Amino acid sequence: MMVQTQAAHENRGLVEVLTQTEIRKKPPVNLVSRQIHPENTVVEVEGVLFGGPQFAVIAGPCAVESRDQLLATAQAVKSSGAAVLRGGAYKPRTSPYSFQGLGAEGLDLLTLAKEEIGLPIITEVMDGTELDLVEAHTDIIQIGARNVQNFSLLRQVGRSRKPVLLKRGLMTTLDEFLMSAEYILAAGNPNVILCERGIRTFETATRNTLDLSAVPILKERTHLPLVVDPSHAVGDCRYVCPLARAAMAVGADGLMVEVHISPETALCDGQQSLSPAVFQTLMDDLRLMAGLFHRVL
Ligand code: PEP
Ligand code: MN
Q1: Is the dihedral of CA 256, 150, 137, 91 positive or negative?
Q2: Domain range 31-293, CATH class
Q3: DSSP bridge pairs for 123
Q4: Which ligand is nearest the CA of 267, by number?
Q5: Are 175 and 194 in contact (CB under 8 A)?
Q6: CA 94, CA 88: separation in Å to the nearest integer?
């Protein structure tokens, strides 16, 4: 009897080990995977289509600073052909002494800019407690690089009806990035736009290293649209335009670019912000390239 019990116990142990091994071997249910969803997901935001032939350009200041700054920048990027206006109201800053954004006042200015200029808005939510307010003001909810693995925030935006732009983290592998998007889809929100914004490497010549190889790899692995943010990747306005052009060539569905009416006086990320004149030349170049890469701009 003793012997039988011992054998049964050992057997149960073996079964448990095998089950765990099977679980580890089994691919998880992957809503983001192109294998189960071969067609591109096209995310629609007020007539702007991410993931189809359109090359959708999101542009605007790093942070909303004032009514005049936002409206002038919004007018400039719209006249150059931007499809969506960006602007941070809640800013994730490395130093607590740096400008942290205008908060709720910034959201009101974004709503005003949308009404006056007529572009849909994207802005970042940093904290779940601010989600209702941000959601009420924005057309796309941005999850910043530093929150890419804030799983409770991902679940919260997964319950939203608004599209989510999810930025890759500074140290996120592509598998981890896709799993973060999976959280949002699994919570019920299918409208996710991925954003490659550079990763931290040993190289110090640029703020981060733009991982352009992520673009064709992600486009192969997932049906979700993907845009490239060259501004936060290189952190220097001199290199933003060549990398923006490269992003179109390598298959991105659009861009996020920081533009400021007066980069030298910007309260945040002025060194990497394009002036309206330079942004205009970039858009002219992208329009010339678009036909070659089967894109509409
Ligand atoms: C931003 O886009 O405003 C931003 C802070 O970027 P990231 O989260 O990629 O650093
Ligand atoms: Mn910025």
Answers
A1: negative
A2: alpha beta
A3: 141
A4: 2
A5: no
A6: 15
User: Residue 91 CA: which ligand 1 atom is closest?
Assistant: 5
Helix%, strand%, coil% for the chain, nearest 5: 45, 15, 35
Residues sharing a CB contact under 8 Å with residue 130, sequence separation 6 or more, in sequence order: 90
Q: pLDDT tens-digit profile of 235-286?
A: 999 999 999 999 999 999 999 999 999 999 999 999 999 999 999 999 999 9
- Asked if residues 228 and 216 have their Cβ atoms less than 8 Å apart, the reply is no
Q: Which residues surround ligand 2, an ion (CB under 5 A)?
A: 62, 269
From the CA of 230, which ligand is nearest? 1
The sign of the CA dihedral 239, 242, 247, 248 is positive
Instruction: Judge contact between 113 and 74, C-beta under 8 A.
Output: yes
Q: What is the CA radius of gyration of the chain?
A: 22
Residue 11: partners with Cβ closer than 8 Å, 6 or more residues away = none
Domain parsing of the chain, residue ranges: 31-293
CA atoms within 13 A on the CB side of 65: 20
pTM score, whole prediction: 0.91
Atom of ligand 1 nearest to the CA of 146: 8
